[in-house]
Amino acid sequence: MSVKDINQNLLKPATKRLLLKSVTKFYDPLGLFAPTKVVGKILFQDTWLSGVQWDEILPPNIAKQWNKWISELSSLNDIGKLRWIELSPSSDYSLHIFCDSSERAFGVVLYIRYLEGKTTKAQLLCSCNRLSPLKRITLPRLELMACLIGARLLNYICTNTSQCSNTVD
Questions:
Q1: pLDDT, tens digit, for every residue of 55-103?
Q2: DSSP at 57
Q3: Containing domain of residue 112, as a range?
Q4: Neighbours of 16 (CB within 10 A)
Q5: Residue 115 belongs to domain with CATH number
Q6: What is the C-alpha separation between 6 and 116, in angstroms, rounded?
Q7: How many domains does the chain have?
Q8: 137 CB-near residues (< 8 Å, 6+ apart)
Q9: Whether this model's pTM surpasses 0.90
């Protein structure tokens, strides 16, 4: 992900096309920055619902939120990304999945908890989120949708890794 490229968009008038371009440039396959990206997705959904045309200037309230979101993206460069976790087949580790939803979005985060020496460590493995459908759905149903993507994410991780935890919480 290049935050520099996205920050260049602040110099241009805020349009629906530019907002979508900014959200799609944000490449994050592991979902490490999913909470940040979902804000952009929600802004685009709000723009879509407002009926703004592609090259029309965004309404002031959405443009203000978009400028704030773009400005906050520069702080993502300061975050260190740990990717390598060395585990032996005899390592004591477990996967922990957390699912949650709100009226606007739902998501899942997957952590690995492991022993390194005599200390216990936890590290974010991946996450994903989705926007809630435009048709209103009850919060319990959205919670179930979050659980479904949590189960799918766990299945994907266990299927595509050579080691899968015996303990999942």
A1: 999 999 998 998 888 888 877 766 666 666 777 666 778 889 999 999 9
A2: B
A3: 93-161
A4: 20
A5: 3.10.20
A6: 38
A7: 2
A8: 145
A9: no
